[in-house]
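Troubleshooting log. The previous run stalled partway through. Resubmitting the same two chains, unchanged.
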Amino acid sequence: MGKILEVKDVKKAFGNLRALDGVTLNVDDKTVTILIGPNGSGKTTLLNVITGFLKPDQGQIRFGSADITGRSPQEVYSAGIARTFQIPAMFGNLTTLENLVVAEKNHPGESLTRSFIKRLWVKRERDAVEKASKILQLLGLSEQMDKPASFLSGGQMKLVEIGRALMSDATLYLLDEPVSGVNPTLAHEIFARILNLREQYGITFLIVEHRLDIALKYVDYVNAMVSGRLIAAGPPKEVISDPKVIEAYLGA
Amino acid sequence: MALADQAILFTVDLLALFSVYLIIDIGLNIQQGVTGIPNFGILFAVAGGAYVTAGLSTRLALVILGIQTNLDPISQNVSVLQLVNSVLGSRPTMAISLFILFLAIGGVAGAIMGLIAAAPAVRLREDYLAITLLAFGEILNVIGEGYTPLLGGPPGVDLPDVLAWAGQYRFYAASFVLLVVAIAVYVLAGYIIKTPFGRTLKAIRDNETVARAVGKNITHYRTASIMFGSLLCGMAGSLWALYSGAMTPTLARFDWTFLPWLMILIGGMGTNRGALVGTAIVVSLNKLITYYKYAFIGILPFDIIWLNYLLLGIITILILIYRPQGIVSETAMRRKQGEKAISKPS
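Second attempt completed without errors. Output:
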């Protein structure tokens, strides 16, 4: 199995706070990897640095064979990395379906000049709607398709976020706490669907999550961060029995 | 004059004003309502369209109609226009072509003004963006007053009468033409809002961070939105200059920024229909207040010229407190559409 993402000695400071203090981390192709760590250990900062929302002070990030260090969010997105956010973020006045369709890459109808000529984009639009409908069905959201996204429940919004990320045809998905605030049944369902997606599309997930009781059953690898550094990485059993991880995160 | 005639004149005059404001409001709605750019500087685009049209129209008419004269088109504006208008009166096709040309010039001028205002400001966060755009509002009045080749300074200039051929029906023809342009803009903007381009603008408005995460170039779309909205505002300015037949560098922020904002506030942002409803209400109200305020001379403890400001100001506050989403709510409209779609058997 090859590496799809390589983070090498990445540093990022906010003033005196060293949020990332030389993180080195690898994600293998077609795996589900979870990133754990106490609050403030730099997990979300790492996602922000990988996806271009923040520029690293130092270090290198490679995606496949490409160097994506310091690229803009658009460039990272078109390279094939999609992400979700910790607090579910919707385009509230767009419908659930539109929330997905809007994520379609390089849609010709998105150009002001080309949007005047319907013929240039209507077929692409139809394909995108079809793709989005399929994803919504897969996520069990077909019923909510035409509702404005602001009317969805918190759990449904989490699913829509994942669905929107799936529209990108990305090969790597960075999910920030996909099941926080979601009831256990739905949380298990979300992880089961993540595995399903991995099988179906051969894609890779890097997931930040605190709900280990749920997540551990489903993941291949666990990475543990403390104070902006990676302290352990490996299969779930190994990492959660690591004394350093127990001390810093899990508690006795 | 009979009362019926008076009512007709009042309505026809109102329609012209309504058309100009409808175009501006659609342009403003695209920026504020659809994209979430609080453009308090639309006066810049409106005045850009109006002043550039006023400054260029007589000169261009001379060249295009092939009129030879030693008179200066700005300082001897009235005499030059006598020559121009006598030709336009007998050549309706030429006059209409010129009208379309002037309209296009106004639109381009507006779009350029929009770009000038947007370029430094578009990277700022919403609140700072608003302040920066507000500052742009009255720059053109200062330029218009000081730079005489544009409008001849404070006295202003007259414009060619592109409807001279309509003779005794000119007054009606003017309102009709304006209304036709406004309806065309309404249909066009309604279409654009529904395209994937419009959808992306709304996505940026609803959540800028997520829009970036799904690969949208925010600066690019904001600039496109400001330019498109400003193009419409510039066209409206051009129409207003041609309709008025004269232009002085005095377009005011109250008339051309505050009133349009009030219109989209009352009508509801994000939809064309909201812009339409708001425009109809405020244009009528403002006109009625202006028409009847003289009845209050001596009754009110202040000068009646403040009545428009006062009443419209009160309405603004009431709307913001009791119906901040406006009369036509985008979300409610969406939900209704959604329910309809769900109840449909698939």
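Takeaways: Chain A touches chain B through 42 residues (CB under 8 Å). Residues 184-201 of chain A form the longest helix (18 residues).
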